[in-house]
Amino acid sequence: MLLAIAAALLGTTQAHPRPKAPADDIVVLGRRLDDWRGVLVFADDVPTCRIRQSSGDAGVDAVGCSSLVSCFSQARPRYLSATDASKRARRRAWAATGRDLSACLSATRDAAIIELAERRWRAREATETP
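^ UrcA family protein, sequence as received from the core. Prediction below:
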């Protein structure tokens, strides 16, 4: 999905305003996020993120963790509500919740990577402009 957004940005013509962040930056950050690995850990029943494999970029690591915690927190009530269901119903509910969690992670990460790229681009522009 991230590559599709970047391709769309690269395909814009000069008649359109310049994108806020170069598409190449978005693609690079997205690829770094692909290398990131994290897990949820619970302290006093509160989900927090633990990085298993850093992307090498603190901003990208933060995107991975914040997306994981945010999306899991949204899906958790549905996941927990299925624990009292029959085994078959529970499996269906958990599978549906897993699909929703995956979609949330994809959308949240994409938006956060674009935002990170834009922030960094604006910072570069501010330092390069006299």
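The longest helix spans residues 87-128.
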